[in-house]
Every structure is written in structure tokens, then in C-alpha cells.
Amino acid sequence: MNDFTRESLQCTLNLIPAHIWYADPSISLTFLNERSADYLGLAKDHPLRFGIETGAARDSHLAFLHPDDRETARKVWSECVRSGSAGEVTFRIRNAEGGYRWFLSRAEPRRADDGTLCGWIGINLDIEDRQRAEFYLAQGQRLAHIGSWAFNAGGFEYWSAGLFQIHGLEPGGKAPSTPEYMALVHPDDRDFVAHEMQKMLAEHRGFDFTKRIVRPDGAVRHIRCVGTPVPEGGTFRGFVGTGMDVTEQEQLTQALRKSEEELRQIVDLAPQHVGVLGPNGERLYANRTALAYLGIRLDDWLHATIGSHVHPDDRERLIAFASRLSVGSVPELELRLRKNDGSYRWFLARYNPVCDERGRLLRWYVACTDIEERKRAEERLQQENVALREEIDKTSVFEEIVGTSPADGCACASFQGRSQRFHGTDHGRDRDRQGARRPCDSPALAPLVEGIRRGQLRRDTSRADCLGTVRA
Q1: What is the pLDDT of residues 107-153, one digit of tens each?
Q2: What span, in angstroms and rounded, lies between the C-alpha atoms of 316 and 333?
Q3: Is 93:85 a contact under the CB 8 Å cutoff?
Q4: Region of residue 359 (left: phi > 0; alpha: psi -120 to 50; beta: else)
Q5: Residues whose CB is less than 8 angstroms from the CB of residue 441 and which lie 6 or more positions away in sequence, other chains included
Q6: Is 369 in a helix, a strand, or coil?
Q7: Residue 77, CA atoms < 13 Å, CB-side half-sphere
Q8: Is 142 exposed, middle or buried (0-12, 13-18, 19+ CB in 10 A)?
Q9: Cα separation of 232 and 35, whole Å?
Q10: Each residue's pLDDT tens digit, 220-266
């Protein structure tokens, strides 16, 4: 190569926005383009800027690399020299200020027409931003217990460092083959996972499932796998996805399920009718006592409408009551519920809210207590009170007409006593204090008094009959 050609080539290489270098067959540097030389802080008249061989040792360029990366670079370049084939490696190169940046370095052999190795031409690409992004991604995956992967019909193409760590393997290795991967899956889940893999390859559809793996140390972990197909130009290329370690979540979920099952058993053993509603009144659960009373299954109760098992006369009250529910109280409602034989019984329904630590409503627990006997007792008492009032009224009419005589005083005493107990007063005594004149002293009432004494008129005779006797 003459001087003009050499200078023209160097000028061209200096214009390339990358770090370009030449090396002899032993990969000892012989030329650096301007961008690379400036990055290293080489003097303007340094021989490497002009392609002047300096006879430097083969490993002299390793001094520009980060101490932690030198051994890796030496191994890669030694393999290139031994095999005479291209190679690449990533390492950190020190700049003029003493800082380091990540580069991807690739070397290609230069051969003569007869195939003899003449030297190497290489390019260093600045991948600092990419490395930082990958570092932050790897750290994020490590903290979140997440790893990423790529998969096609031939097996796994890629596993991230986080995925290796999740499976208890050394990061940086080659992605496992399909048999190696299946060996990591828990024996009880292998058939399921194999079926899912065959299904996703056949249907080219996304998937989301959780499986168990067994680490080399024997630890069992729950891994959630989420994948999506990757088309390219309308052609299916494979899947990309993530694997997330959800062992702690699974353990919490199992503990929660166990706790809910224990609570459900307790609720089922309760003698009351208990229903569980969501914050918007949606039905979630009813205990065995309630279902046995209604004579239905849980699924039927869950899909029933509000008021479907309530007495027709109570439904409007129940709907209005439900619309006014609030968290700040424990509201109650009395209503009749239909039994499995078609009869109705009275119940007292108490709505107990359950909230989280922020006060947000989570559930309504509704406890229904049978108050049928109480309702019947109240009805009997009401009827007795009505009868007592009628008896008192009749006694009052009798005394207004005939007053009380020694013979009748004993008979009236029982009525007066019962009246005093009901009203808390003694009317006869008040009239005596006032010195009121008895109606029977009037001569006009003599026929009525005579009729009573003869037994023709009794105390239960109506006012109208008594007055009719007087008029006669």
C-alpha cells in the first residue's frame, strides 16, 4: 500500500463515528483512528495515530482496560489468534480523564489473497448507555424477583441474569435446552407445563400460568410465567416473556385461603342465618343454617335477586333499607323470610360493616336472628291489652249508670284494680274526693237499678241496652 492510499484510508477511518483500530496478526495495535486516539488521550504525534508500528507487546493494549476486564479480553483475543476467526468481547476502556465506559469490541481477520493472516481490523462501539440500562433492568428484576426470556420451537434463545438467579443457577450461562428446563420443573407440574408449551406453540397465543420449580439446593419456588407471541413481517418468530417468583404471594394466598376456610366453618356452625355481602351489596356467601332454612344451594342464593326470599309485604322496606346503608352504624331491620316449606318466620337482620385500615368498606356481614316467638308474644300482649281496654270501658259505663253498692262493690273491685294497674290511676277514689253525686240516686234510673238487682242486666251489658232500659 503506497503512502497516498494509506493516508486516504486513514482520513476515511477518521471520519467514521466509531472507534476503529488495526492490529498485527498477534493483535498488537498498529493504528487507532482519531476518535479512538482522542478518547484515550494520546498525543497528537503518537505513532498509533499514523499507523506506525511501534513493536509494542501483544498485550500492551490491555493497559487501557479496566483491571476487572483484562483477563476476559485476553482469553477472547487469544482464542481469535489461535483459530484465526472473528471474535467479540465487552469491556470498559479508560478515557483521557481516567473514567471508564463500556464498549463492545469486535475483531475481523485481514487475509492476503492466498489466505495468509495479515492482521486484524476492529471496531469498538460505545455501549455505556445500553450497559447502564441493562444494569438497572437487572437490578430491578433482581429486586422484583423477575427474569425475562425468549423462546421458540427450538427451545430457549435467551435467559436474563434474573431468571438464572430465580432458578438458583449461576447468571451468565447459556439458556437451558427444553429437557434441561423441564428437569428444573417440579415433578408434579411437568405434565402440565409440557402441555402448556405444546399448546402455545400450536396456537401462537399468549399465556399466563404458575408452576413450581425445584432449585439445585432442593428449595421449591412458585414461578408465574407470562408470555406473548412475537410476529415479524406476519411470520411467527417465537415468544418473549417473563418469569416472576411469586412464592411469598402464593404462601400468603394459601394462608388466607386457610383462614377464610376456618372462618367459613365457624360461620357455618353458627345457629344464626349469616350472609356476606360485598361493598355494593353483591352476594358473596351464606352459611349452611341460612341455606338449609331457605332450602336452596349456595349458587342459587348467589344469583338470586334482592328480596326474592322475603315476604311480599316486606320487600319494599328491604329495598329502601338497603339503599340507605352506611358504614357509620350497625343498622337493623325486622322482616319475614320464607322457609323451605313455604311458611314465613320473623327475623331481625343486623348489618355489620367490615372496613380496612383506611376505613374503606370491604364486606357487610348480615346476621339474621329468629324472632318469631317474640313477635307472637307481642301480638298476644297487644290482643290482651285491647281486650283489657274493652273490659275497662264496660266497667266505666256500668259505674256511670248505677254507681257502686255494697253488694256490687266487691264485684267492681276487680275491674277497678285491673284498670288502676293499666292506667296507673284510681278514678273511683278521685270521684269520691270530689264528692260527686251517684247517678243511681236519680228516681229516673230506678227501673235500671231494679233490673240490675234482679239479674236482668249484667256488667257486660252494652251501653245501648242500658240506655234502652232507662227510656222504657
Answers
A1: 999 999 898 999 999 999 999 998 888 778 777 777 778 889 999 88
A2: 12
A3: no
A4: left
A5: 403
A6: strand
A7: 27
A8: middle
A9: 36
A10: 999 999 999 988 777 888 999 999 999 998 888 888 888 888 888 88
User: Is residue 420 classed as helix, strand or coil in its secondary structure?
Assistant: helix
Neighbours of 74 (CB within 10 A): 16
- Decide if 321 contacts 333 (C-beta within 8 A): yes
Q: Give the global pTM.
A: 0.49
First to last CA, the chain: 159
Residue 167 class from Cβ within 10 Å (0-12 exposed, 13-18 middle, 19+ buried)?
buried
| Domains of the chain with CATH codes | 3-126 (3.30.450.20), 131-245 (3.30.450.20), 270-370 (3.30.450.20), 376-471 (no CATH)
What is d(CA 165, CA 159) in angstroms, rounded to the nearest whole number? 10
Cell of 205: 397465543
Buried b (16+ CB within 10 A) or exposed e, 330-362: ebebebbbbeeeeebbbbbbebebeeeeeeeee
Question: How would DSSP label each residue in 178-221?
Answer: HHHHHHHB-GGGHHHHHHHHHHHHHH---EEEEEEEE-TTS-EE
Phi, psi of 221 (to 5 degrees): -125, 150
Which residue is listed with cell 256500668?
Answer: 398
HSE-up of residue 146 (Cα within 13 Å, Cβ side): 12
CB neighbourhood size of 314 (10 A): 19
